[in-house]
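QUALITY CONTROL LOG
STEP: pairwise intake check
CHECKER ROLE: data steward
CRITERIA: each record must contain a sequence immediately followed by its structure tokens, with no blank fields

ENTRY 1 OF 2
RESULT FIELD BELOW
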Amino acid sequence: MACWRRFGLPLALGLSFGLSSGLGVRAETWERIGSFAATLRRAGTSTLVARDCPSTLLGAFHSQRNALLICANNLPNDPAEIWGVLAHEAAHVMQHCKGGPLLVEGQLDRAITLVKASSPRLFKELKLYHQSQHRDEVEARLVQTLPADQVEALFARFCADRLAQPTAETPRDE
């Protein structure tokens, strides 16, 4: 994938994400973003920054590589927006850690209602995904609307075993 070119920049530097909706996402600091990216790396997930993504791609998670991608070329330089994409992609990392959905079956309808209410545009974007991806994307959209403390707590809950066990070689940004 051409957009997976790696840069030696920390996630928190010069990145941006363009969610211009009325989400309840609180403005986060670059320091908090960098700290959460470090937590992701401690859990074994590489954080990558690309400047050559297709114009419609803001971020991605590649489960086979266990790598989270931020598309710097498509994002404004705003920590609140960066936090939104980081939280969204971190939800996919959590799904990967858990080996499936974060929500139990009966919670999905409520999640859809919450995502619809918090940002109709985010819900409309679900149409861009294959039906088989809707559940994962609803969960990610729900997570990205949560306050940072809650996102970090969810990450600790679903990926705690990866954080507790030091690995021989912790992935780092390249």
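ENTRY 2 OF 2
RESULT FIELD BELOW
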Amino acid sequence: MSPTIPEQKSNLRKDCRQIRQALDSVFRAQAGQTICSQIASWPIFQKAQVILSYMPVKSEVDLRPLFELHPEKRWVLPRILPDHGLRFHPYDPQRLVFHSFGMAEPDPQLPIISTQEIELVLVPGLAFDRQGWRLGYGGGYFDRFLKEFHGVSLGVIYEALLLEELPRDEHDMPMQWLVTEKKIIPTKNQAYPAISKTSSPRRRTARSVG
């Protein structure tokens, strides 16, 4: 009997954690710096003013250098809610608290930023495939957010964890773009909207893939 999609994902998570943990810490640091440079030179990043990112955990790609190099951007971080949703607050390095999952989150007393204000989201994952599909940690937080998001999504991953194809189910949401230490890759799942400083980006209809 073939394994179910949840079983396939569970097995893949174990494999991907091992692959990521096996990456040398020096390599991870260098790859992270290269990825930050790739993003910084990307025209969509340069146009975006309000950017949702994340605080790294468990050897994820560290994007914090971007926060320091581009203080002119309005950086936003997610906070996990008890109902498995996300709430968004400004990034303030002096006002971070730690979630039980191990990652730093914004102080819940900080102002709330609406989803409609966010133009670009930088999404972590255990792995992505070349079509833009994501293997996360199983909570579904980003997938629920992305269903309501109308901006540009960029999946952030080491090249070693960019796979040819991932199992997926009806709740999964694909990325529009991917970035590794080698390049930025447009995916074929969705058209992407332009970002302007005077109007909110609008998501076009997702195209199906085989």
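INTAKE CHECK: passed for both entries
DESCRIPTIVE NOTE, ENTRY 2: The radius of gyration is 16 Å.
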